[in-house]
Amino acid sequence: MRTYDKKYERICTISLFLLIPLSGLATDIFLPSFPEMQEVFGTDSKGIQMTLSCFLISYGVSLLAAGSLVDSFGRYKLVLASLVLFSISSFAIALVHNIYFIYGMRIIQGVTTAFIVVGKRAFLVDIYQGKKLQHYMGMLTIIWSMAPISAPFIGGYLQKGFGWTSSFYFLGAYALVMLLIEWFFSGEAFTDLKPFKRKHIAETYRTVLRAPDFSMGLVVLGLTYGMVMSFAMSAPFIVENHFGFSPVVTGYCALISGFGIMSGGILGRSLSTLPFLKKLFFGVGMEILVGLLMFGTGKFVSNIYVFVGFIYLLHLFNGFLYTVYFTYCLTRFPEYAGVTNGLTSGASYLVTSVASYTVVSLLHITNQSGMALSYLLLSLTILSLLFFLRNKVKKRPLARG
């Protein structure tokens, strides 16, 4: 097996930064193609939205186990194998035009993306320490957040110029190029492989999940990101069918919504000294207020500019809420950092996939008011969970915050 060579540190770090956003690219780049895919495959909007849910569910489940597996079997081989399968599945989707086949390939992509992301995050810890590691970890968060912003923007132009298959050709080529870079320049940097002991791992999971503030956080995070995915699933149909704009405009709308999430994240970090629960109630309270305004005005003033303005505000407070609770969960059990990382990402993604698909299926979102209703439904659910958590806190104080 090829071992890591420090002389390739720079190119390996660049490769890592290019691979971490893969999850965002895989979920968002083909969103502007939803209406054309619906027409090509002769299905309804829910049938196309299922392609996103298949990825999210398999990605979330795989994240739960990926951390333990890369610690037991190493990072390099699992990442290489995952890149091969991801690339093949992407080209297969573009070539085999069967909706059920696409569902299967999207499940494979979710599994392989989880191993790529977890493996490369662990690789960063393997090759850097101290302040340099903290610096790159901070950069990693920013780079990861850029994918959901830029992917629909790129996908909009690909859809306009070449049709729905172009996004999957792009993903396949992207993974293939990254495979070659990893093959020639990267290697295994982790030497302290740990035995895969299921009993010990299961006990750790039980310890972490028994904490109500942590387990409740997984649900809140999933519902919070579920709003974003509900928008992602519905926006192409609203922008292109309801408002009558091109797929490129769908990409611009996603770009603006992404900047809202990023702005909320910055706001969350800047208010880090405020009480934890107060920040959560503030975030969800503002979401409900903006959602009510969006729903109320939808019957009187409904155009693309008003719609995107409300989405920006909703995603600003959405990003604020997500950042606050995500940071809390990651630091809740420092002695179980790997497990909490996998659980926080994996379990919340499972909640996201179920919540978003349930909402878009039940509400059949086609306009501004329907979109607002989905945010209100999820926000009110989060609010009820926070009240429940506050009652728990009265009996047993939070660990931090």
From TrEMBL:
Its main location: membrane. One of its GO terms (biological process) is xenobiotic detoxification by transmembrane export across the plasma membrane. The keyword Nucleotide-binding does not apply. It is a multi-pass membrane protein. One of its GO terms (cellular component) is plasma membrane. InterPro entries: MFS, MFS_dom, MFS_trans_sf. One of its GO terms (molecular function) is sodium:proton antiporter activity. Keywords: Membrane, Transmembrane, Transmembrane helix, Transport. It is found in: Membrane. This is Predicted arabinose efflux permease, MFS family.
